[in-house]
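Course assignment 3, question 2. Fill in each field.
Student: A.L.
Task: Predict the tertiary structure for the chain below.
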Amino acid sequence: MSSVSPSSLAFPLSHHHLAKSQPVNSLSLSTPVSSSWSSSPSSSPTSSSSSHSVSPLPVSISLFIKKNGTSPSLSSFNKFLFSVLNSEDPFSAELLFSSISNFNLSPNSQTFSMMIRFFCTTNRLDEAKNLLKAMVVSGLVPTVNSFAILISELCKRGRIKHAIDVFKVMKRTGTEPTILIYNCLISGLCLVGRVEEACALLMKLKEKPEFVDVYTFTGVIDGLCKVGRSDEAMEIFQEAVRMGIRPTVVTYNALFNGYCREGRPLEGVVILRKMAETGRKPDFVSYSTLLHGLLKWNQIMVAISIYNEMVEIGFEVDERTMNTYVRKVSKYSLSDESVLVEAKKMFTKIKDMGYVPSPYTYSTVIHALSVGGEVDAALENMYEMIGHGYHLRTLTYNTVIRGLCNHGRVDDALSVMNLMIRSRIILDGSSYIPLITELNRQGRILDAGGLYASSLKQGMVGRWVPRVETLAEDDVIHRRRT
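Answer field:
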């Protein structure tokens, strides 16, 4: 085994760091047990280099000393260390562990393993790694579980280089890696974008089928899908099936996510149908991923089908997805009025569930209703939106005005314009044009002229002017009467 510098043997503990020259089996507090713990159950050595504040020595440790003396068996010590690690104050275990030599004991594999796990679960991976290396240098061989939890936690946090270092130490000790450890390495490589290395590792592992399982393949498939290589992921998927490995729903979800990312959600739907043929039932994530993808890439009719399928199964989409669904379907209804019913149904459902639709959702639905000829519903939702305290954009008001004017309801449209003025909303040409046009059509020339004059005062040169010839005729008739 390669030599390790003395500094690498130092335990990075909160209460008592080892001197660089101090061997592993000589851990001790600067103050003897008899003087440091006999005076008060709650007293403890001071700490000057801790990133975690450790509570004063618990009464339970004092009771342990009274019961077992200063020379307990290592088995008793390990059992007590385990109980402290699982107590409400697990950080006290650091003090206990750092003072093990005061009990005339040296840590064994079980002692080290418990502390390595503790450091991993408290996200102190450097300390766990140093402790594991010190353990190896002291002549002890960590358990495969100690290696596994440290490699797993390092991989989860994207520290793949450190995970590989620990893996190399593991190999040097003669400990055989498990499938779990290989799976962690593959996931870790994919997490940091080293997908080619993950694929190469998978190819090597396939030579020994006992070292691969569905999670090994799923890790690589997910990694490929996340970097836009879904076709390659599908090849890996098919290879796994040929090897007799049955994909899980997580494997399928990785493919769904990949195809949706690449703008190919319809291919994901095809896989969904084939998935059912294999006996695997899609879960909420399966449907939700595809629904998001279909909506994002404007495959609205298929999205409606997938949503209805979700509801039939018993899945409920979240508020955010419901808002997105309503907006997308509402926009699609501008070119296909038949789907407006679906948008209205979901919009009503959002409100029935106690949610308040977002301003963007309200505006989109109001626009769809106005264009679709349901002006009463558009007007109702406009006032409802105001009641929720939302600030309507000029575009939303103009949409309602246009819808009302298209149905001859010019007085209602004028009321909406007055509301805009009272709310200090800036009017634009699109606010005036529908009104002037409809007033002209209805022969209300003076009203049209008044609006035209108002638009000019606002600095807008109207392209749609009142019927001047009609104004002149009205003026002649008025003079004759007087």
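Instructor remarks: The longest helix spans residues 300-313. The two ends are 119 Å apart (CA to CA).
Grade: pending
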